[in-house]
Amino acid sequence: MSRILSPPSTFAGRLKYLGPGFILSAAIVGSGELIATTALGAKAGFVTFWVIIVSCLVKVALQLEFGKNAIYTGTFMMHNFNQLPGRKWGRAHWSIWLWLSLQGLKLLQVGGIVGGVAIVLNMAWPSISVNVWAILSVLITSFLVYRGHYGPIEKGALVMIILFTGVILVSLILLQGTKYAIHWEQIKSGLQFSLPTSLVAIAFGAFGITGVGGDEIMYYNYWCIEKGYAAYTGPNDGTPEWAERAKGWFNVMYLDAVLSMVVYTVVTAAFYLLGAAVLHRGGAVPEGYEMIEVLSRIFTETLGPWAKNLFLVGAFFVLYSTLFTATASWARVWGDAFGELGWMKFDTAENQRKSIAILSWILPAAWCVLYLFIQSPVLMVILGGIATSILLLLIVYVSLVFRFKELPASLKPTLTYDIFFWISVVSILMVSAYGVIKII
């Protein structure tokens, strides 16, 4: 049965069809924001605040290209990777093999997130060991998402976004009543686009870890399709009517992506300001998940013992939202990739449901085993970050193909959009080149 639907033309009408961005925001705000961004503020103070804001803003253009591709093709990302120009090895395009080669490190990264969730839960209930919390966390997560339905995942992500955004903003507001209060002059100094030479390396690192990443950009394709944007647009029949529908659903997707960007930018900025205000003046920067304990201790010293529970609630939902959405997203991406490789069946709705269900149990179990074996969540997250940087370069390449090779001529964007797109591409390439130079 056809699901073709005319796109809403009003702002209020478009709000009713938002959703994929909720899942993306929940995925993005995780260990990078809670730990790495806070640590950057602790090291640099307020002076690199503008780097965080710019980093969150410029990468969204690549996300939009993947969202548009989902709408005008109606097909999943790994299938679209397999249609890219270039060499195939066996059944799969080289881009799929490159993606697969990075997944060992990515498994470590999410294993580190499992460890982070377990550490926070252990801080709240010390009578249960960290290892037991890790096992319980993945079992509960698998149970919540294995059925593969889009609706509960969107609603779960939205609830966690509301909770962690509310908690971190309340924490920031309460901070204003303490000796760590933030003043406008401090924020102003961080928005002046100046950068001391000694902080260049830190600033480039911040650009890489904040905002939407390569993984989340790939996820967006699946969530846009499951939300119905592609089905509402209908298959490309070459008619002006189809082009108008596609542009209308593009506008819905743009709003979804931009509001998502606002959420993760606000939360990331809040974590940065906490680090700059509370930890920078002391000079000591705790490493990794020790940041959680240090920040909670500072809040108890300034606001009272009750504040630790407030901060732990925020820390839990920040980390668990990533685990929850990663489980749902990875099951789809891996199922799709294995389908293209011929290792699983992913060609019908029923086969997709079965593959997602299986992988929703297998992948979290693998993350948990890796954490229990390695027991170093910070190292695991850092190693996964290396793979993320390489993946982002692949995303840039694919975005260029989508924009200039695959996009139907009738859907050509404005010059303003293309300028913003090229700013994103050049920014990411510059940061990547800098990283390579530093390694050499």
TrEMBL record:
Gene Ontology biological process terms, A to Z: iron ion transmembrane transport
Assigned GO CC terms: plasma membrane
Secretion signal, residue range per the UniProt entry: none
UniProt keyword list: Membrane, Transmembrane, Transmembrane helix
Source organism superkingdom: Bacteria
Main location: membrane
Protein's membrane topology: Multi-pass membrane protein
GO molecular function, one term: manganese ion transmembrane transporter activity
InterPro entries linked to this entry: NRAMP_fam
Subcellular location: Membrane
Regions crossing the membrane: 21-40, 46-62, 96-121, 127-146, 158-175, 195-213, 254-279, 310-335, 356-374, 380-402, 414-437
PANTHER family the UniProt entry points to: METAL ION TRANSPORT PROTEIN, SOLUTE CARRIER PROTEIN FAMILY 11 MEMBER
Protein name (database record): Nramp family divalent metal transporter
Record organism: Dyadobacter fanqingshengii
